[in-house]
């Protein structure tokens, strides 16, 4: 009986895995079925929207989607107009770029005539230039402009460059796209390539005080072209903090995290400083809870029906050991900070951290005659809640990490330090 039930379980598992492997294919088939229904209704735009994503690929699904178009002359003849409307309605550079990229896939080249492909690429190129000029498509230096010859023209490139600089301002124009680290690099590289006597170089130089550049940007990217400005601005931002701990171990754990607060912060033990900071440990108590263990039992009728029928003798019971354990840390720190021209700080950082752990072991089935056999399945939802995610045994190191994190966060809130960190 036991061998039979294991065979049944193996077959069920294989069926489950094979079903998971075809989920994407089933979804593709559903989209194709939806497209066929829309084609029958004459809704060619809706049909194209249903399968256009699948056509942007190389697998059999892309070919089958293209066959839907090629199998309907009206759909095929109307496809250029549908894509043309999509080009005119593109809402972002990325959107327009995706449309042009799709035109290169075999599923599109097999459904569109060569002259239609040429016309659509020309229309997309014109849309890229028009959208850049009127601001509807906010192209930046980091966008894939190489797909559009029109954007290589000097006047178009200048618009993109100026927009990219404006995006980096502390107060960018309304509707600007989010700035990114690659954009900072792209702007400075463009000015460097143009040369120190160029219009681009002088525009960037004039905008420097208005740009939202991190200290890292100043030290690496900006310093290559404008070393004096970068050095002066970096010095203005940097805050020297003289810090003292009364516990060597706390210091060893906290200092790496403190240095990560901001590149504008420099921590020293001696010498002049804008902020003088002291950290005193007032409490540090670690406690480990006594482990507890109890036996959990389920009657035959309390086990999931399918598992009971297939994997347990009639009227047998299910048993396992449920163990719990835990650790707790109570801690307190006194944080004091003073400095010329900055408000003094005297804060008590006090809290309790705790971790609990549980495990399930010795799962077994006991028949009505007292015989035992191993159980390799979850009995019911109650057991799933108790044993589904047992985690790892608790460790005082995890609590220490949490306590140090709270201490560093409190130090980071000190006004002079928070300002240097940009908070």
TrEMBL record:
Keyword Signal listed? The answer is yes
Keyword set for this entry?
Signal
Tell me the superkingdom of the source: Bacteria
Signal peptide limits: 1-23
- Name the UniProt record assigns to this protein: Lipoprotein
């Amino acid at each position: 009986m036991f061998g039979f039930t294991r065979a049944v379980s193996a077959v069920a598992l294989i069926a489950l895995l094979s079903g998971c492997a075809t989920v994407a294919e089933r979804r593709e088939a559903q989209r194709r079925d939806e497209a066929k229904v829309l084609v029958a209704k004459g809704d060619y735009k809706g049909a194209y929207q249903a399968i256009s994503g699948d056509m942007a690929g190389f697998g059999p699904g892309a070919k089958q989607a293209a066959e839907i178009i090629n199998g309907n002359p009206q759909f095929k003849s109307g496809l250029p107009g549908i894509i043309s409307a999509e080009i005119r309605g593109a809402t972002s550079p990325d959107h327009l770029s995706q449309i042009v990229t799709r035109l290169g896939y075999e599923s599109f080249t097999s459904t569109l005539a060569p002259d239609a492909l040429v016309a659509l690429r020309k229309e997309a190129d014109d849309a890229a230039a028009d959208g850049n000029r009127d601001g509807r498509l906010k192209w930046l230096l980091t966008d894939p402009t190489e797909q559009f010859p029109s954007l290589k023209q000097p006047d178009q490139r200048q618009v993109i460059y100026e927009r990219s600089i404006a995006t980096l301002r502390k107060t960018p124009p309304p509707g600007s796209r989010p700035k990114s680290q690659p954009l900072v690099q792209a702007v400075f590289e463009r000015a460097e390539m143009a040369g120190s006597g160029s219009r681009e170089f002088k525009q960037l130089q004039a905008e420097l005080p208005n740009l939202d550049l991190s200290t890292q940007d100043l030290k690496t990217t900006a310093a290559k072209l404008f070393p004096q400005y970068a050095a002066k601005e970096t010095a203005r931002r940097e805050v020297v903090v003289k810090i003292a701990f009364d516990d060597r171990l706390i210091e060893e754990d906290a200092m790496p995290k403190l240095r990560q607060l901001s590149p504008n912060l420099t921590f020293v033990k001696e010498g002049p400083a804008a902020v003088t900071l002291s950290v005193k440990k007032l409490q540090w108590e670690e406690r480990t809870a006594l482990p507890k263990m109890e036996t959990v039992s389920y009657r035959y009728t309390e086990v999931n029906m399918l598992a009971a029928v297939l994997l347990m003798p009639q009227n047998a019971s299910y048993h396992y050991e449920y163990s719990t354990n835990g650790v707790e840390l109570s801690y307190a720190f006194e944080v004091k900070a003073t400095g010329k021209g900055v408000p003094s700080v005297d804060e008590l950082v006090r809290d309790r951290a705790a971790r609990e752990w549980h495990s399930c072991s010795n799962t077994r089935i006991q028949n009505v005659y007292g015989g035992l056999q191993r159980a390799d399945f979850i009995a019911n939802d109650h057991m799933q809640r108790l044993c589904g995610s047992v985690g790892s045994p608790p460790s005082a190191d995890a609590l220490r990490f949490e306590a140090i994190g709270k201490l560093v966060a409190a130090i980071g809130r000190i006004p002079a330090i928070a300002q240097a960190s940009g908070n």
